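Weekly structure sync, notes
Attendees: PL (lead), two postdocs, one rotation student
Agenda item 3: pending single-chain targets
PL asked that the sequence for the first pending target be pasted directly into the notes so everyone works from the same version. It is reproduced below exactly as submitted, 138 residues in total.
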Amino acid sequence: MAALIQFKGNADGITLRLESLESHIGRGVDNDITINDELVSKQHAVIEARQAEGKSGGFEYFIKDCDSTNGTFINDKRIEAETAEFKTSASCQLYHDDVIRIGVNHFRFVDDANDDLAATTRIHKTWIPGLYISKRGK
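Predicted structure, written out during the meeting:
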């Protein structure tokens, strides 16, 4: 599977593994990846892993904005599809080293097929509201 690596400036931060076929991202606590940021919608975006055609065991990854207020950006381009009649959300394929921006948070998309990931860190909620801790995972 793949991962998102949160970063600020040139420093890499937390690595978040995308361990399921759908990973929901947003401010709401029911998401797989919870971002505590007022610019992030409760259900902001979803990353889907789809079986790659012609690749045995390989996956392709797509991100879809869930009609968020402030949008989801890939390499500084907002993902959306516009027609003459209406605007609707669209999915965008993710490639190794793409930069995803959700609110003021930046993530680098890393595909395991292209990179050897370091030890993974997982985020866990604490009993203190708004405080999260990280634990090294398997």
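Discussion points:
- The CA atoms of residues 99 and 108 lie 5 Å apart.
- The chain has no helices and 15 strands.
Action: rotation student to compare against the earlier draft before next sync.
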